[in-house]
Amino acid sequence: MSNLLSLCMLVIFSITWLNAKDFPIEIILCRHCGFELTNSSAVINVATDKADRTINHTKLGNTSINVQKFLNPNGQPFNVFTVKDANVKQVTEPIDQFSWFPGYSWTVVSCPKCGIHLGWLFKNISPKLRQNTITQFVGLIYDQVVSENFHVSSHVWVSITAKSLNSILIINLLSTVEIIEIAV
Predict the structure, then answer these.
(1) What is the pTM of this model?
(2) Is 152 exposed, middle or buried (0-12, 13-18, 19+ CB in 10 A)?
(3) In angstroms, how far is CA 163 from the centroid of its own chain?
(4) Based on the domain organization, do 19 and 38 belong to the same domain?
(5) How far is 3 from 182, CA to CA, in rounded Å?
(6) CA–CA separation, 102 vs 149, rounded Å?
(7) What is the pLDDT of residues 81-98, one digit of tens each?
(8) Residues of the signal sequence (predicted)?
(9) Residue 116: exposure state from Cβ atoms within 10 A (0-12, 13-18, ≥19)
(10) Do 92 and 68 sit in the same domain of this protein?
(11) d(CA 32, CA 21)
């Protein structure tokens, strides 16, 4: 079992080093057509108490992303992360009601190339928030975008056989490791 642990540590170190060295800034693309929208250096974590939940992700190499789950007025869930700016097309006029970010209006945005709904542009409309705050940002739907280094599977599957134990080591490309024990 100690050989398995040693191998795990080596793989974790190798993947962490690979991510930090080779993917310092990731390009964020439309999942549907590959259009370049923005990059990981534009990620900003704009928090709000309107989110049903917030989870921390590292979808873009070593960039930490707060993904917030929201429900629209019709009850449809959206997992959203925020960026300073993105190359998106505004589809609707700004709307002040039902904003997930109080003090900001929202506008539906889509991909300029394929037209798929990508998220919302949020603009500051509150005089109280205008000083020392972000004037506008884009909330991108997490499942509508991919990074330029996206792979069909976000996991590398490695089978390791130890004497009487067959383990599957699942290595997330973002350095998360999970070992599943399978009895033989």
Answers:
(1) 0.69
(2) exposed
(3) 39
(4) no
(5) 17
(6) 34
(7) 999 999 999 999 999 999
(8) 1-20
(9) middle
(10) yes
(11) 28
Burial of 143 (0-12, 13-18, 19+ CB in 10 A): exposed
CATH number for 76:
2.170.150.20
Helices (H), the chain: 2-22
Tell me how many domains the chain contains.
2
Q: Among candidates 165, 170, 163, which has minimal Cα distance to 184? A: 165
Would you state the structure tokens that stand for residue 17, as one six-digit string? Answer: 């080093």
Tell me: do 33 and 111 sit in the same domain.
yes
In terms of residue numbers, what domain contains 168?
A: 2-23+153-182
DSSP 61: T
* In a shared domain, residues 43 and 125: yes
Query: What is the spatial distance between Cα 55 and Cα 82, in angstroms, rounded to a whole number?
Result: 13
- At 161 the pLDDT is 34
* Spatial CA neighbour of 32 closest among 92, 89, 112, 121: 112
